[in-house]
Amino acid sequence: QSVLTQPPSASGTPGQRVTISCSGSSSNIGSNFVNWYQQLPGTAPKLLIYSNNQRPSGVPDRFSGSKSGTSASLAISGLQSEDEADYYCAAWDDSLNGVVFGGGTKLTVL
Amino acid sequence: QLQLQESGPGLVKPSETLSLTCTVSGGSISSSTYYWGWIRQPPGKGLEWIGTIYYSVSTYYNPSLKSRVTISVDTSKNQFSLKLSSVAAADTAVYYCARLMATISLSYFDYWGQGTLVTVSS
Hints:
The complex is a heterodimer of chains A (110) and B (122). Chain A has 110 residues and is mainly beta. Chain A has strands at residues 9-12, 18-23, 34-39, 46-49, 63-68, 71-76, 85-93, 98-101, 105-109. Chain A is globular, with a radius of gyration of 13 Å. In chain B, the strands form 2 sheets. In chain B, strands 2, 4, 5, 6, 9, 10 and 11 form a 7-stranded mixed beta sheet that branches. A 4-stranded antiparallel beta sheet of chain B has the order 1-3-8-7, with no helix packed on it. In chain B, a hairpin with a 3-residue loop joins strand 5 and strand 6. Classes of the chains: A mainly beta (110), B mainly beta (122). Chains A and B meet through strand 7 and strand 8 of A and strand 5, strand 9 and strand 10 of B.
């Protein structure tokens, strides 16, 4: 069981806006920044959002992140077929003194 | 452009030690800005952080694996390595090496290797 909790699946149609939630605790999301990774089928994870809401160079502004208290969210607007992937949230955990991941959310574009 | 490449045996027998190496190119592993880490992903499952090393000085391990894990750095070869002892079938996974950007309250893996599948089987 993962330390951070995500819904196992999410879906949307092209052009829609979808959000993926990530719930943690005071020792991880509550006191540290949240990051999001996108894993396309058969590939390594790719950094999508860091520091709660920052996009690395090359990541479209359709992707946005937010955090409130011990929860975080990833929003994808203008959904495209190529967004179909697994999405993972992650944060440093002060109690474990290490990185914790969410269990991942499989996004399906209908 | 920074690149990371995992290498090592794809098949390990139960109770033996899994050994992997990550070769870093396009940047120095000795940089004071970054940490280096290992993450694994069992088939069809999510990501699990294994451990992280900084400058051969500090290591941080997942408590669930700590008794079996050793991560080390070879600055002369610009490589870092993972050893996981007493492996079992549950250790079968794709193993990724990655660079970790870490400051107070902020840590994220910004560059990843392509991953290597390690199967534990007799």
